[in-house]
Amino acid sequence: MTLLTIRLAAGALLAAFVAASPARAQTAAYDAYVFARLGGYSPQHTDLDGYGAGFDAEVGFGHRFMQYLAVEGAIGAYRSQRDIPDPVTGATIHGAESLSVVPVTGTLRATLPLGGVDVSALGGLGVYTARRDWTTPVAFSRSADSGTVQWPLHSTDRTLGLHVGGGASVDVTPRISFGADARYVFASANFSGTTTHIGGLRIGGVVVCRF
To answer: Over the stretch 98-111, which tens digit does the pLDDT of each residue have?
Structure first.
């Protein structure tokens, strides 16, 4: 890449920011905001083979501390499940295994206004409280003793995770915007001594209210 190309690209980027500034002058008066996101979760790792797309939701708040940078805090929940055959009858037990996760996250969001659309990139850290449930109508014998363990069983863990992603939104009023974002979660939990990747893809529609 030549020096001239770099200068031209930098100039084009600066021009985009300058051109967008007048259109966002009224919106820029509001530095704090709250938001809600509703969408779906899709497991992406082989640890959760057979688990289907599930529910995902999140609420949070944000504060823009620079013109194009903001920090956000949020709490959410996502869930996925899979069907398994009954070990006795062979019949399918719908939702016999499930994963439920409650993430509490902090995010840094960089936003670039382009015409009437705000395009953003994001990344952050979170604490993920996860629970995995197994449900079946039978009991089984443990090799450790002569007793039995009665189903359902569950295991919980709390772990740290990372997320990266991006989104886009459109202002409908100076205070309200609608959009969508997607993020990929990198996190693993320990369920009964077994490490399981509990991350994946979280996608949803977002409504933002500034004040």
So the answer is: 999 999 999 999 99
Contact in structure between 114 and 132 (CB atoms under 8 Å): no
What is the CB-side half-sphere exposure of residue 40 using CA atoms within 13 A?
Answer: 8
Pairwise CA distance, residues 130 & 128, whole Å: 6
Model-wide pTM > 0.90: no
How far apart (Å, rounded) are the C-alpha atoms in residues 94 and 145? 31
Separation of alpha carbons 129 and 3, rounded Å: 49
Integer Cα distance of 156 and 206 in angstroms? 29
How far apart (Å, rounded) are the C-alpha atoms in residues 140 and 13? 64
Domains of the chain with CATH codes: 3-210 (2.40.160.20)
Give the DSSP letter of residue 2.
-
| Torsion angle of the four alpha carbons 23, 39, 60, 98, in this order, in degrees rounded to the nearest 10 | -160
Contact 54, 75 (CB under 8 A): no
